[in-house]
Amino acid sequence: MVPVVPMAPGRRRSTVARVAGELAEALLPQRCLVCGRFGAALHEHCLDGLDRAAARRCEACWAPVSHDPGLCGRCEQASPSFDALRTPLRFTGDARRALLEAKFRGVTRLIDPLAALAARAVPLHWQIDAVVPVPLHRSRQRERGYNQAEIAAQVVARDLELPLDPSLLRRERRTPAEAHLDAAGRARNLRGAFAVDGPPPPAVMVVDDITTTGSTFEEAANTLRAAGAATVYALALARED
Ligand SMILES: [Zn+2]
Ligand SMILES: [Zn+2]
């Protein structure tokens, strides 16, 4: 039975959201998001059918390019502040549905298979000292009850046998939603959003769930470099092309 306790109005939504998420996790049988059959949140072969972000991509920001391997027009003009970004999936179709369910509806078990896929997209030559999730502001994390990027980073670190450092980056400001903003607007919105706790190791891989313009990774990389990191890689589960 769920105990009935008086709650301050500000906490009500967070607790309801958390309990709803936990109930969904506990009560719903493992049913695959793609095929609807039981047995897994996402079957291995259903995962194989998701829309891949592969082939003909910018070596730096992973944007689609029409030519053979190289840089996209934007990165030709100015390199991003991270060294390179990789993502296994495009943010479309069932991958999009899975990530939105995980992010907003608490179906966090969907993150594991997607993050395992992301771990396999990390190039072998990347030398990584620490895996660092993109943090949520603590008030947002309190409302949501979890950070989907942190869950993804845990899986990636485990699969690649790398150290996880979930507290290296901290979100200083609660940034407004940015779905309606263009790249420049997003960059402005995020400026000064992060802080680093303690000196970072030389090479860091930052992990997020979804990337659109790469502006979150850019800002995280700027912050980590200013604190002394020499190399900053970026890994997302899906990219909105
Ligand atoms: Zn399936
Ligand atoms: Zn590029």
Strand runs, count? 7
Mean pLDDT comes to 88
**N-to-C series of helices and strands:** HHHEEHHEHHEHEEHE
The CA-CA distance between the termini, in Å, is 45 Å
Oligomeric state of this protein: single chain
Description:
The chain is α/β, with parallel strands linked by helices and 241 residues long. The protein has one domain. 38% of the residues lie in helices and 14% in strands. It has helices at residues 9-27, 44-48, 73-77, 93-104, 111-120, 138-144, 148-160, 183-190, 215-226; strands spanning 84-86, 89-90, 130-133, 169-171, 194-196, 203-211, 231-239. Strands 1, 2, 3, 6 and 7 form a 5-stranded parallel beta sheet that branches. Strands 4-5 form a two-stranded antiparallel sheet. Helix 9 (215-226) links the parallel strand 6 and strand 7. Residues 1-11 have low confidence and may be disordered. It binds zinc ion (2 copies).
